[in-house]
Amino acid sequence: DQQVKQNSPSLSVQEGRISILNCDYTNSMFDYFLWYKKYPAEGPTFLISISSIKDKNEDGRFTVFLNKSAKHLSLHIVPSQPGDSAVYFCAASAPVTSGTYKYIFGTGTRLKVLA
Amino acid sequence: GAVVSQHPSWVICKSGTSVKIECRSLDFQATTMFWYRQFPKQSLMLMATSNEGSKATYEQGVEKDKFLINHASLTLSTLTVTSAHPEDSSFYICSARVASGRSEQFFGPGTRLTVL
After folding, report:
1. List of chain A residues whose C-beta atoms are within 8 Å of the C-beta of residue B109
2. Do B44 and A89 touch (CB under 8 A)?
């Protein structure tokens, strides 16, 4: 049962335009969401996060939007640059009984920014 | 940001042998380390959560006797794949967290395991 879904396996965007990556989740207990970027043969690197008490968080070219009622979040990158080409994972977390927070990752979306 | 290293970066082994993968936090002490596995074009699947000095907590479906995790210090966790088989071939990634709660996880570069 995939609790975090990224339905678009790939996305191509022209340089300078906006990239929108989408993520849906099913578990209403998730209350913290993150986006990670991953290059081939490397570990993911953190991009941006959002808590469920917010509906938007912005950091430079990256903005994450959260729609709790729809259980949907999106990452906007504007303007897109060729160096943004990578696989983007969304992740969600919820508290577990021990107090440890663990992440559930989506399947990733491969973004290609065309020069 | 904090740096997490993994060793080896890739390993090829024969079926039936055991392989140990190390995960180190280089410039911080990690209270918790996580081990993930990624199949091609699939998500990162959490295998286990490891707290220093205590037994790892394994996710459902992950065999603890096959994937041995030791978190001996605040900077080192090891994953040993015992009696490896070709279906264990995968990309294994560790992450480390600085403090408890919602603090960010920092990921290692991953280890590519190929079992012949």
Report:
1. 41-43
2. yes
Question: By percentage, how much of chain A surpasses pLDDT 70?
Answer: 94
pLDDT at A100: 65
Contact B2, B23 (CB under 8 A): no
CA atoms of A55 and B33, how far apart (whole Å): 29
Cβ pair A47, A32 in contact under 8 A: no
Give the pLDDT band of residue B27 (cuts 50, 70, 90): confident
Contacts of A108 in chain B (CB under 8 A): 41, 43
A21 near A80, Cβ under 8 Å? no
Q: Closest to B43 (Cβ–Cβ): which among A45, A46, A108?
A: A108
Is B101 near chain A, with CB under 8 Å? yes
Q: How far apart are CA B97 and CA B95, in angstroms?
A: 7
The predicted pLDDT at position B105 comes to: 85
Rounded Cα gap, residues B14 and A115, in angstroms: 44
Any CB–CB contact under 8 A between B110 and chain A? Answer: yes
pLDDT in tens, A29-67: 898 999 999 998 788 999 999 999 999 999 999 999 999
Q: How far is A81 from chain B (nearest CA, A)?
A: 22
- The verdict on a CB contact (< 8 Å) between B112 and A103 is no
Closest CA to B97 of B115, B113, B77, B82: B77
* A46 burial via Cβ count (<10 Å: 0-12, 13-18, 19+): middle
If one compares A100 and B95, the residue with the highest pLDDT of the two is B95
